[in-house]
Amino acid sequence: MYIVTAKEMYDWDRKSIEEAGMDGKLLMENAGRAVAGQVEKQVRSDQYIIVLIGAGNNGGDGFVIARTLLNKGYAVKAWQLVPDEKIKGDALAHKQLYLGAGYELDHLTEVNQLFRELDQADVVIDAMLGIGVEGKLKSPFDQVVAYVNQTQAYKIAVDIPTGVPADEGVTEFDGLQADYTCIIAAPKMSVFLQHTAPFYGEWEVVEIGLPPLKLNKPSQSLWERYKAIASLPKRNPFSHKGTHGKGLLIGGSYLMPGSIALSARAALRSGAGLATVASPGSAWPSVSSHIPEATAVDAKEVNGMLAGRLDVDFSNFDAIALGMGMGRSNASQEIVRQVMEEADVPVLIDADGLHHLKEFLEVLKNRNRPTILTPHPGEMAGLLGITVPELLARPFERGRRFACSHGVYLVLKGPATIITAPDGTQVVESSGNAGLAKGGSGDVLSGILLALVMQSESISEALCNGCFLHGKTAELLTGERYSQSDLLATDLIEGLSQSFRTFSI
């Protein structure tokens, strides 16, 4: 499933009509009927529904929705919020069909009259404004949206909640707070932004018959369950431990031994054949007690943290993950530089490793093998030298620029994780829940990703599948045994077996 910008969505509509010869009125009928079908699944026929209709295609969809629901016996009242001359083209054609069917249409002349109706509504369907809105809402939409937001009615938005920007980069707006959004054709970028996603509520995409062979393919897409099931690594019955990868994990410290232990255990639970840990000797007793299957590399330490260069042959390993719990001492920084300059295998850098890396980002461009960075927003903002709000306003754009300019794979973690390849292709992985908002979850993800990188032909697929397993494991566990409050990172590791049984075929 592709993710589109407003411009890309307009281009899809244009190509469908001009190049594929589709009738715009037919597409509008398809859209309205598809939304109405979803409304029927959530609303009883005895509930009072108000459809708020504006100009443009969104308003045209509203006329189709109202007519379709009235045809099926629902209690619906349609309100047109703009002057008659604002209703044009395909929307006007569907307004005429609505009126021609004999149904009544209320016109907004005084907002308090509408407000009194809204107080009586069980359901409000928002077909006021679509993806073309920029900036603050104007009258009467600003007043109507503010009033709808404070009502008790169940709120359903058509394609996008009124006032919410379709694209990234807009932080000041007035938005309708929907309980459910029925998205037309493809999710818009704002579905996956932290400051706009909450306005959508639950959401679902409906198909309206656009011709896929005629449409440009956006560079953003959504990683879906069927893709994961098709591409998760399969175990060969004649394989051995070396077949599934020998991973080196570098990190941990005397005061933070758990981080590297979590990563190593997660790597082995995710199918890695062998895991070797390079951590301070003072931390090793704690690490080994949690992951006895791992072997160790002798490493120098100062004050309980890794220090100086590692005496290790990196060519003995298939991939490396570093940074988890290693600390931020200047002595540890030398190890990060050594790995980046000497390791001729894929390298994943997380946590404290990212803190050290920002001092010499130029080494990224000199690597011939894949480099994977897995920052959360705070770490990504640090790499870019900007604030977290600045990053979150444009995570797609800033992530793409960084990945392309430095030649790295970037896993920007969040409720919707954005995975960017060095060529700028982006995939959103949106599984998981608030149970992951706890220390250690990121360390587990690093271990999963390391294991899948060693077992997959495609780095991008490995990263998408790793994030998928991480998030889906949290969903499975909190749907049965745990709550989102008490889920621990160690629970995630042990729950991976359930995810593999569920999603591997």
From TrEMBL:
K(+) binds at residues 58, 126, 162. Keywords: ATP-binding, Isomerase, Lyase, Metal-binding, Multifunctional enzyme, NAD, NADP, Nucleotide-binding, Potassium. The keyword Lyase applies. Its cofactor is Mg(2+); K(+). Residues 9-216 form the YjeF N-terminal domain. One of its GO terms (molecular function) is ATP binding. GO terms for biological process: metabolite repair; nicotinamide nucleotide metabolic process. Residues 224-503 form the YjeF C-terminal domain. Bifunctional enzyme that catalyzes the epimerization of the S- and R-forms of NAD(P)HX and the dehydration of the S-form of NAD(P)HX at the expense of ADP, which is converted to AMP. This allows the repair of both epimers of NAD(P)HX, a damaged form of NAD(P)H that is a result of enzymatic or heat-dependent hydration. Belongs to the NnrE/AIBP family. NCBIfam families: yjeF_cterm, yjeF_nterm. Homotetramer. This is Bifunctional NAD(P)H-hydrate repair enzyme. The gene is nnrE.
